[in-house]
Structures are given as C-alpha cells and as structure tokens.
User: Fold this.
Amino acid sequence: MVVGVMQIELAIDWAQSLKDKRRVVKSLRDTLHRHHMVSVSEVGDQDIWNRASMGIAIVGSSGSAIGATLDRVLERIRATPDCELTSVSREVLHGWGGSFGHIADNDGCPDDGVLEETLRARANEALERDIA
Assistant:
C-alpha cells in the first residue's frame, strides 16, 4: 500500500469574512474530491478569514500513480482563481502493507475504524514532520 499526503496553504486575499473563505474551501474540496478522488480536509487556520490550510490524502498501490495524481491536484489548485497557493508540502509513503497485520478483527480482515484511525495518525505525523 502506498499513501500520498499533501498539505497546502492558501491565501484568499479578497475574502472579507469566514463565509467568503468557507465558500472557497468547500468549492475546492468538492472539486478535488470529484475530479481526483482524493480526501480533502481543512486542517488549520479555521478562524482566519483570508488564509486556509488543507490536508489532502490518497491511497493506492502505485507510487508513480499517486505522485501523478498529486501533481494534477496541484495544477487544479493553481488554476483556481479565488485563491493563491502559498505553500506546499507532500510525501508519498511506501510499504505500509505489512504493518497492518496486527489490526484485524476476528475474521482476519482489517477493522475499518482502527485502520482508518491508524492511517489518519500516520498521515498527521507525516504532515507534522513536513511543517517542522
């Protein structure tokens, strides 16, 4: 399994309120999910009306495919007229498949809640390393 994570910082200079900012963030989140099948969440600066911090994640079996998808996501963000991309950090993590062997329920299949929680924690650790 390969996981791609990316954190972006956006400037929304024209925004006059949190409502303006949230309209941009929601539109971008929905567009990225619909066109690229990535998970997107606002991960910081929620109360700052002219700046947004967003996390983007994708899981797959090929690092090159994930890298290409993250490249297309960045192209779409840069082409968005309502905001300016000010910062990007990204990481593609390989070889997680064997590390989930201990996360299984009684039928031997991974417990979705624990697996999701573990993926989220590891993605956050990767994002924190990039920020520091």
